[in-house]
Amino acid sequence: MTVTPDGSAPTAHADITDKELVEIASILMKRRTFDLSVYKDACMKRRVAIRIRSTGCRDATEYCDLLRRNNHELDMLRKVLTIHVSQFFRNPSMFEKLRSRILPELFRTCSRNDSGVMRILCLGCAGGEEPYSLAILLREHFSAEMRSVPTSITGCDIDDETLRMARQADYTEDRIKEVPVVLRERYFRREGSRFQLVPELREAVSFHHGNVTSVAEHQPSDLVLCRNTLIYFTRSDQEKILHGIADILPENGIVVLGKSETLVGDVRRRFTSVCPVERIYCKVKPDSDRSNIWQTDYHPKSIKEE
Ligand SMILES: C[S@@+](CC[C@H](N)C(=O)[O-])C[C@H]1O[C@@H](n2cnc3c(N)ncnc32)[C@H](O)[C@@H]1O
User: Any residues with CB less than 8 A from the CB of 222 and at least 6 apart, and which?
Assistant: First the structure.
């Protein structure tokens, strides 16, 4: 059977009309100040359909009635609408590219900056798997650099329950399956079927509630990861979010997107590609000669895919 990126059946939303989705959006905005309009309709309809089925409601009208009187269901829906799938070292080749190419240069650049620090921001950090993977990578390969360039890692997500789990840093085995055995033994303590990240690494990441649609509220960052999150937003909101990211990056700062995400619209003027395969871009001055410290990786196949 064909499945969509979020794992649901492609026609599951067919019976939810645009009007019904607007009604659900208005309930969510009024009762939870959650803005559904920034996400793709088809994706949201599929997620709503899952809740309609699980609650045994006959249709979207009955489900709207339930939402109006049941706070628990409102929270369940809110949770289902934001997808939290993640794992440590998701797309390992991207982490290898950060290790071999991006981080060495960023440390050099940051050591010459007035602030002398390096700030890393993970937007849509889910259960902390991505920022903690970066913390492991830095500890394994850049301890010397971090002594002269203090480095901060911040994870931000809109979902408080997910952030609570991120701070707890207690994972099932499927979340850490990409972690090499030697690193598992070094950085996780097994407790029954669960794996607890060691305190030194938990302390290396701070987590904040935040909405990617207001990235500008974050402090300037040298490296921003926004992977597997943009894909759920409408094209115009993707563009707004990317502008927000460009606003907090310095010139030559880096953004990493997910494998199925890319720069859209006018914001392309503000970035140039560093590694097309891994969707890594650096910020440039718009309308300039686009000069920057990075050289684009040459990879004919991936350039065609862009
Ligand atoms: C699929 S996960 C991606 C996790 C991680 N970046 C990765 O690639 O493995 C998407 C995350 O984006 C978060 N998210 C969705 N909408 C958001 C918003 N408006 N602001 C901040 N985070 C959001 C979700 O709560 C979820 O944790």
Answer: 106, 109, 110, 118, 119, 120, 249, 250, 253, 254
pTM comes to: 0.90
Nearest-5° Cα angle at 99, 94 to 102: 85
Q: Going from the N-terminus, what domains does the chain have, and what CATH number goes with each? A: 18-81 (no CATH), 92-305 (3.40.50.150)
Q: How far is CA 80 from the centre of its chain?
A: 16
Q: Atom 17 (ligand 1): residue with closest C-alpha?
A: 158
Determine the distance separating the centroid of ligand 1 and the alpha carbon of 83, expressed in angstroms: 7
Per-residue pLDDT of the chain (306 residues; tens, 9 = 90+): 344 444 444 444 558 999 999 999 999 999 999 999 999 999 999 999 999 999 999 999 999 999 999 999 999 999 999 889 999 999 999 999 999 999 999 999 999 988 889 999 999 999 999 999 999 999 999 999 999 999 999 999 999 999 999 999 999 999 999 999 999 999 999 999 999 999 999 999 999 999 999 998 889 999 999 999 999 999 999 999 999 999 999 999 999 999 989 999 999 999 999 999 999 999 998 767 777 888 777 655 544 443
**125 Cα to the center of ligand 1, angstroms:** 6
